[in-house]
Amino acid sequence: MEIRPYDPDDDERDLWALKRAFEGGLGANTGGDEKGAVYEGKLTDAYRERYIDWVERCIEDDPNCVTVAAGDDGLAGYAFVLPERLSMIWDAAVLNEVYVAPDHRGTGVADELIEAALATARDQDLPLDRTVLDVDPNNDRAKSFYDRYGFERWGEMVARQL
Description:
CATH architecture: 3-Layer(aba) Sandwich
Radius of gyration: 15 Å
Number of domains: 1
Strand order of the largest sheet: 1-2-3-4-5
Number of strands: 5
Largest sheet: 5 strands, mixed
Shape: globular
Order of helices and strands: EHHEEEHEH
CATH superfamily: Gcn5-related N-acetyltransferase (GNAT)
C-alpha cells in the first residue's frame, strides 16, 4: 500500500467512492435509520461536485492536506487535514476526515494515514499546537483508534438545524 498525496487526475473517482462510504457509515452505523437517510440524502451529484471542488481548492493551498492509501485495486482510504489557512476555525489543525475501506481495516493502513495527517498538521503554523477532530460519540471503533494516538476529549460539539 502506498501512502501519498491525493492526485486529482487519478484519484477523484475513488476518493468520491470512499467519501460516500464514509458518509454512509456515519449515518447508518452511528445513528440508525433516520440519521442514515439524512446522510444518504445529501450525497447528490451536486454535493459530489462541490466536495471535489473543495478538495481541489484545499490541495491548491497544501498538496499534502489529503493523503491517500493507494493499492493495485484503487484507493483503500484517505485522511484529510484542512489547510493551514483554515486553522483559525478551531485555533488548531483540523483533522477533517479519516476513512479506511472495511476490507483494509486492521491492516495498518489507518495507522499510516493518521501518521501522515499528523505530519501535515505539525508542518502548519497554528494558534494552538494541537490537532482537533469531531468523532461521533457512538463510533466506539473510531474513539478507540484516536485514544490510541493520544487524542483526548476536548469539549463537546453541538449542532442545530438552520
